[in-house]
């Protein structure tokens, strides 16, 4: 699987993610790398891909590490273009979901601070925005 699909998993951009073969293994590798090689269980992956707002500094920084790995966060900035391109590609067979996730990403691209000095806090802002707008556009 292409690494950019992992970003979509991280943001939970698609409710049908379990149908994508291999995403768990790719995500496990990425998370393990972000945790200095610590093994990651299937249960941890299931928890990680839920559209939840990270609460602890450790959770925020883990999310930031995954985002940085796939250039979603770069130099303290959220790259809305990457998020949108991956989402459109992943959801191309469902135009209604593409429309909804485009709205979420557009809102978040506007709502998230343009630049932040702390990637962990930026990851928190991204997920907080995603969860808020996911509900607003009727994705959940």
UniProtKB/TrEMBL annotation:
GO terms of molecular function: odorant binding
GO BP terms: sensory perception of smell
Pfam families, alphabetized: PBP_GOBP
Keyword Signal: yes
GO cellular component, one term: extracellular space
Key words, A-Z: Signal
Matches recorded under InterPro entries: PBP/GOBP (IPR006170), PBP_GOBP_sf (IPR036728)
Annotated signal peptide: 1-22
PANTHER family with a match to the protein in the record: ODORANT BINDING PROTEIN-RELATED (PTHR11857)
Protein name as catalogued: Odorant-binding protein 17
Organism field: Tropidothorax elegans
Gene: OBP17
